[in-house]
Design brief:
Elements (H helix, E strand, L loop, with lengths): L4 H32 L9 E7 L3 H17 L3 E7 L6 H10 L6 E4 L4 H6 L12 H10 L2 H7 E2 L2 E2 L2 E6 L1 E5 L1 H6 L11 H11 L1 E2 L5 E3 L7 H7 L5 E2 L4 E2 L4 H17 L1 H9 L13 H4 L4 E5 L1 H9 L6 E3 L12 E2 L1 E6 L7 H12 L4 H11 L6 H4 L2 H9 L4 H6 L5 E2 L7 H17 L5 H21 L5
Parallel strand pairs: 1-2, 1-3, 14-16
Antiparallel strand pairs: 3-15, 4-5, 6-15, 7-12, 7-13, 8-9, 10-11
Helix pairs in contact: 1-3, 9-10, 10-11, 10-19, 15-17, 19-20
Length: about 450
């Protein structure tokens, strides 16, 4: 313990100095933010400063519902400011809180609720509800939407759009391989067999087309009946037998075709992260079956309306957990120090559907977003959207599942997220470690991080 003290004290000193610097920089950053914000059009009203991270076509949706909210009442005016995630949205938020002048409300999708909630930077939104409202929220909100926004029994973020994953597939390619697109596999084992029949190779034996490429360890540990979090014991789990089985499946899948060969194939594809979706390899037919999120439904309708496709849940292994997987989402938070807490809460209720499901149903239809409960999903406008985009119904069905899990709710959630990805990379993409070794290394890393945080006095 004595040997660790200098390092710990040094770290604490750095934290104190960092806070001083944050406070000193806050006013400058907030001035810049004000210059980039929309001007208030109704000065007599109470202004609600709203920060969000959407750009391009998504910003159009935000501006639209902000305008509608402002037109729906005459007490508050929301003034929106777009701060792209790549432009340091998290840093600007922390500077605003440190400087005593944060936004009144912020839309987020980063892994921040446990970290910011544990530091007292967020208003517990359940404190703004009556006992009956809180009870109703817990009863009616989809399980994953609750998990995203809740930390240590308090609600810090109301989900306005859930992210879930499912299998997109090309019926034509399945038919050409002698497979029936009307009967998608109901086990992971069968899906793996289908993928083998859909693969294509050139004369040199190199992959030119893949039937399916499973990725995302967080998805598969839950599918296998394991997971990184024990909710009852409130503790992290890593090298458990089911987690090892999940990582072994991903590793063996890549090993079968060769780690270098799969990497060669995927590195030759365009990025899958484009917000427009035009460079998504599924559109060009590089994959017969692709595991991806619900946002692709809107993108396909916008940029590739002639592509025939269907969507089905990712099937579990024979002994696994049905409709298990990974979930995330967009959510609204109110920072401590916000000047218009009640106005911000009214705006959150408006956008999410806690006030009027019909309003939120229309908003979700504009963005192609998954709502937080059945009241919104059953609204007239959202049902019209589903009628035009029937593939989206698969995702609405999936979010009812209690087996969809977010990244474990620990204060170092963002760091854990990156290390889970590194664990998968070491075993699956590079083949450097066995699945058990990779998970044991992840466990060692997290134990060291927990020990370091305790030495520095962080609350866990």
């Amino acid at each position: 313990m004595v040997n660790n003290m200098p390092a710990a004290l040094h770290e604490i000193t750095k934290r104190i100095m960092a806070n001083v610097v944050l406070i000193g920089l806050a006013s400058a950053v907030l001035t810049l933010a004000a210059c980039g914000s929309s001007s208030q059009r109704h000065p007599p009203r109470k202004q609600i400063r709203f920060w969000h991270m959407w750009t391009a076509e998504w910003k159009v949706v935000i501006d639209r519902y902000v305008k509608n909210f402002n037109n729906s009442q005459d007490e508050y005016e929301v003034v929106a400011l777009s701060i792209p995630a790549s432009g340091g949205a998290n840093t600007k938020f922390l500077l605003g809180v440190a400087g005593g002048d944060p936004p009144d409300v912020m839309a987020q999708w980063n892994q921040i609720i446990p970290a910011w909630g544990s530091k007292g930077l967020l208003v517990p939104l359940d404190s703004l509800m009556t006992a009956e409202e809180w009870k109703q929220y817990q009863k009616t909100t989809y399980p994953i939407a609750q998990k995203i926004g809740t930390f240590r029994g308090h609600l810090y973020g109301v989900t306005t759009g859930v992210n879930a994953w499912a299998c997109y597939y090309h019926p034509r390619q399945l038919r050409e391989a002698g497979l029936d697109p009307d009967h998608f596999p109901n086990t992971l084992e069968q899906l793996t067999q289908w993928a083998e029949r859909l693969n294509r190779f050139d004369k040199q034996g190199h992959l030119t087309h893949m039937g399916f490429l499973p990725t995302t360890l967080q998805m598969f540990v839950n599918l296998y009946g394991g997971g990184f979090w024990d909710a009852q014991e409130q503790q992290l789990l890593f090298a458990t037998p089911k987690n090892v089985d999940a990582l072994d499946y991903l590793t063996q899948y890549h090993r079968k075709y060769g780690f270098d060969e799969v990497l060669r194939f995927t590195s030759g594809l365009s990025t899958t992260g484009s917000s427009s979706g035009t460079d998504w390899p599924f559109i060009s037919g590089a994959f017969s079956i692709a595991l991806d999120g619900q946002w692709r439904v809107k993108q396909l309708a916008d940029v590739a309306p002639d592509v025939e496709y269907r969507v089905a849940p990712l099937p579990a292994p024979a002994a696994g957990r049905e409709k298990g997987g990974y979930g995330s989402g967009n959510f609204m938070i109110i920072p401590k120090g916000a000047k218009q807490v009640q106005g911000a809460w009214k705006f959150i209720r408006y956008v999410s559907g806690l006030q009027d499901p019909e309003v939120a149903g229309e908003i979700c239809s504009w963005g192609g977003w998954l709502p937080l409960n059945d009241y919104v999903a059953n609204s007239k406008k959202f049902q019209e959207y589903l009628a035009k985009n029937p593939a989206f119904r698969t995702f609405v069905d999936i979010v009812h599942s209690p087996n969809i899990e977010p990244i474990p709710p620990v204060p170092f959630q963002d760091y854990l997220y990156t290390r889970i990805a590194a664990c998968e990379d070491a075993a699956v993409v590079r083949g450097m470690l066995s699945p058990k070794q990779a998970l044991e290394r992840l466990e060692d890393e997290m134990n060291r991080e927990i020990k370091r945080r305790k030495a520095l006095g962080y609350e866990e």
